[in-house]
């Protein structure tokens, strides 16, 4: 990545008669930044920003989010246009390379991904080490991390060729590994990828085909899942992407970095929210019980939060939730389950929450996880596979951000500091003197 930080001014900080100055860099879209890299050297102080709510950790050209306006761009293209007009493999190319592919570029990229979809036969042994009822995300963290034990020819991150192979391997093998985790959990045999299928149809077949009969992927359902994958592919410097970048900044191999991203995504406040949102809808159970849960969400003494609502950045409707909502209705109509009870609860919960003062003043809108759970369940996936699908799609964003970080001339090993408020320096006291 070529750094294009453009200085647009200077900001000064004065304290105790001393003044420090810092350059301001102008963004293409969104907030400008104050370059405080010399703050400690000039002032002897650190900034304090737990959760990084006001901190830009890097320069990036991949994704732009405007939380107030509800805007999400992948390499400048609005997410709704990509979801409507493109598909997984083309958007993956766009995120990795920065431009939409020409026909020959797309064909070559798709061929390379297709040729990496199989996993080493010995990788199967990892699955039999897990209990059948292991959470599929636990299997994903373990198996993806283990890939670095198999692919020594693509772990030297200093070699651009090896980085490219690792990138294609990661994107190509995630569906196979994810489908194997699902098959293992239901005691069915693993299904091999088929090279004449597109990325998402291949995944659906590896999940739902059985050796006893042929499997044809329902085009409406495969198209809906492909759209869901596009919506989940990248999202700027979210918790799991920042985890991948931080792990990668130490020079860790790409497979280990992606395993770290999967671990972070698993949390219910992050990628685990789609599973938690569906479990919440099932717990609410009926439209009549919604007010009780709305009150619990407002109660500061109750840890309950409305899963699928709120976002660190979006203080407007998550643009992905809008597309997700449409895809949800399309899938339920295609399956003839439009009056799915959970959908009724979800629609009424959304209506009430969007009118309730607490949610309006705190700008808590439905996020991508609100409708994805209902859609994924309708597509036939069990709840504990929802975050696995999120990880499958987000692998494209993780690996694109990982590559960008390694090529960034300003990149260093990530090493935040702290404010220490512990015990002042003191001498050791022997046990008989305590
Ligand atoms: C994802 O970062 C990303 O980009 C993530 C993601 C991606 O693509 O990578 O978009 C994917 O993780 C989406 C978010 C999925 N998580 C959930 O749906 C879980 C439920 N949401 C909350 O846990 C929460 O909204 C977070 C974690 C998403 C955001 O947490 P913040 O930043 O602490 O929320 P906030 O500062 O905006 O909260 C403002 C207030 C707080 O109350 P006060 O302290 O001001 O009194 O709103 C409250 C929060 O307590 N609040 C909620 C709430 N979310 C925030 N109250 C009830 N229900 C909720 N869902």
Can you lay out the helices and strands and say which pair or pack?
Blueprint: E1 6-15, E2 18-26, E3 33-34, H1 39-43, E4 63-66, E5 71-74, E6 77-78, H2 79-85, H3 88-97, H4 103-114, H5 124-128, H6 136-146, H7 160-185, H8 199-208, H9 219-232, H10 239-249, H11 254-265, H12 273-284, H13 290-298, H14 319-335, H15 341-355, H16 357-361, H17 368-378, H18 386-407
Antiparallel strand pairs: 1-2, 2-3, 4-5, 5-6
Helix pairs in contact: 2-9, 3-18, 6-7, 6-11, 7-8, 7-18, 8-9, 9-14, 9-18, 10-11, 10-18, 11-18, 12-17, 14-17
Give a structural overview.
The chain has 434 residues and is mainly alpha-helical. Helices cover 49% and strands 7% of the residues. Strands 1-2-3 form a three-stranded antiparallel beta sheet. The radius of gyration is 23 Å and the shape is globular. The termini are far apart. The chain binds s-citryldethia Coenzyme A. The site of s-citryldethia Coenzyme A has 21 residues, from helix 17.
């Amino acid at each position: 990545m070529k750094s294009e930080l453009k200085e647009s001014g200077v900001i000064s900080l004065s304290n105790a008669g001393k003044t420090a100055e810092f350059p301001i860099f102008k963004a293409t879209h969104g907030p400008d930044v104050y370059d405080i890299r010399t703050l400690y050297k000039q002032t002897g102080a650190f900034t304090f920003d737990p959760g990084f709510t006001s901190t830009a950790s890097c320069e990036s050209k991949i994704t732009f989010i405007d939380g107030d306006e509800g805007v999400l761009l992948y390499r400048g293209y609005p997410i709704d246009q990509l979801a409507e007009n493109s598909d997984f493999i083309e958007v993956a190319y766009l995120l990795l390379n920065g431009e939409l592919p020409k026909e020959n570029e797309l064909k070559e990229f798709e061929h390379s991904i297709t040729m990496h979809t199989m996993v080493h036969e010995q990788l199967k042994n990892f699955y039999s080490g897990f209990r059948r009822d292991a959470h599929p995300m636990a299997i994903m963290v373990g198996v993806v991390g283990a890939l670095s034990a198999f692919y020594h020819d693509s772990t030297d991150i200093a070699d651009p060729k090896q980085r490219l192979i690792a990138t294609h391997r990661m994107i190509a093998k995630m569906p196979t590994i994810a489908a194997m985790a699902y098959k293992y959990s239901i005691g069915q045999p693993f299904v091999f990828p088929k090279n004449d299928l597109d990325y998402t149809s291949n995944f659906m077949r590896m999940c739902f085909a059985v050796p006893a009969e042929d499997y044809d992927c329902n085009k409406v359902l495969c198209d809906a899942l492909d759209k869901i994958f596009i919506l989940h592919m990248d999202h700027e410097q979210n918790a799991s992407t920042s985890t991948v970048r931080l792990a990668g900044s130490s020079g860790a191999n790409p497979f280990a970095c992606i395993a770290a991203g999967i671990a972070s995504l698993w949390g219910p406040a992050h990628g685990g929210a789609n599973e938690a949102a569906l479990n919440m809808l099932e717990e609410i159970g009926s439209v009549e019980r919604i007010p009780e849960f709305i009150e619990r969400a407002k109660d500061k003494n109750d840890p309950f939060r409305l899963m699928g609502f709120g976002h660190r950045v979006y203080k407007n409707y998550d643009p992905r939730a809008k597309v997700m909502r449409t895809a949800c209705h399309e899938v339920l109509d295609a399956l003839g389950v439009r009056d799915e009870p959970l959908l009724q609860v979800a629609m009424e919960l959304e209506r009430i929450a969007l009118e309730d003062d607490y949610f309006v003043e705190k700008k808590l809108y439905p996020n991508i996880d609100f409708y994805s759970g209902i859609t994924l369940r309708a597509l036939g996936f069990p709840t504990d596979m929802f975050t696995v699908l999120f990880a499958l799609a987000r692998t494209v964003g993780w690996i694109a951000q990982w590559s960008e970080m390694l090529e960034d001339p300003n990149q260093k090993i990530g090493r935040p500091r702290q404010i220490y408020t512990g015990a002042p320096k003191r001498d050791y006291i022997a046990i008989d003197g305590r």
